[in-house]
Amino acid sequence: MTIPFYKYQGTGNDFILIDDRAATFAATTEQIARLCHRRFGIGADGLILLRNEPGYDFRMVYFNADGREGSMCGNGGRCTVQFAHDLGLFTSRTSFLAVDGPHEATASYDLISLQMGPVHGLEQHDTYDFLNTGSPHYVAYVDDVAQTEVVAIGRAVRYGDVYGPLGGTNVNFVQVLNENHLKVRTYERGVEDETYSCGTGVTACALSARAHFGWEGPVLIETVGGTLQVTFRETAPRQFEDIYLIGPALRVFEGTVEL
């Protein structure tokens, strides 16, 4: 079976995009994982199917690099919006459905602005924050993210006694650069490694910074793969709506692969 695919990246978070509006894509968990493998496949942090959905411009179906269907992916959502725009499914504004519900987004020449789902709570613990921005996120503040052992510490938290039994969590390490400006590195579950960027992760970090420092936003966030912005509206203490993840999403290449 020959499958056409497209490769997109959003601040270094890269994805295999497949136009599955004909609903013909069928692959096992192992096959998807192999497609995402950086030695034996195309190489990506995840695979995304774009499908038809009544009442929306499209539906986004996201699989982690381990081949299992995942929770919401912010950068993957932005890349899917750019893919849909490139396919001519909308002009400037779109609405689509993802695993965590409906989303809206706008596309301009070089930026995708994606509305994330509302956040109804933020847990503040002694050494970290925890919240769900479409995916679960652990947020810890450090003096220097460059010196942080992201994979070792992230894996210990992801599989630890607190969050491991609940399916694990993504783990973010945050350095405050100055007001409304953060530097973030993230360990992502499903990839089981550090990624160049994590959209739901930087969203979580921006909301955490609001809770800690009272920042109004937009919050500028430096990741390994580039710069993102997050805007939001706090409707009650530690509750947020109108959250937008803003940044570039670009097509890298396209091709076909035998499955």
TrEMBL record:
Marked site (Could be important to modulate the pK values of the two catalytic cysteine residues) residue numbers: H137, E188
Pathway: Amino-acid biosynthesis; L-lysine biosynthesis via DAP pathway; DL-2,6-diaminopimelate from LL-2,6-diaminopimelate: step 1/1
Active-site residues (renumbered): C73 (proton donor), C198 (proton acceptor)
Localisation: Cytoplasm
EC number: 5.1.1.7
Top-level EC class: isomerase
Keyword Cytoplasm: yes
Chemical reaction(s) catalysed: (2S,6S)-2,6-diaminopimelate = meso-2,6-diaminopimelate
GO annotation, biological process: lysine biosynthetic process via diaminopimelate
Gene Ontology MF terms in the entry: diaminopimelate epimerase activity
InterPro entries given in the database record: DAP_epimerase_DapF
Positions with a binding annotation for substrate: N13, N64, G74, N75, N170, E188, R189, G199, T200
GO CC terms: cytosol
A Pfam entry, by short name: DAP_epimerase
Keywords assigned by UniProt, alphabetized: Amino-acid biosynthesis, Cytoplasm, Isomerase, Lysine biosynthesis
Family recorded in the similarity comment: Belongs to the diaminopimelate epimerase family.
Function of the protein: Catalyzes the stereoinversion of LL-2,6-diaminopimelate (L,L-DAP) to meso-diaminopimelate (meso-DAP), a precursor of L-lysine and an essential component of the bacterial peptidoglycan.
Subunit note: Homodimer.
Protein name per Swiss-Prot or TrEMBL: Diaminopimelate epimerase
UniProt organism field: Rhabdobacter roseus
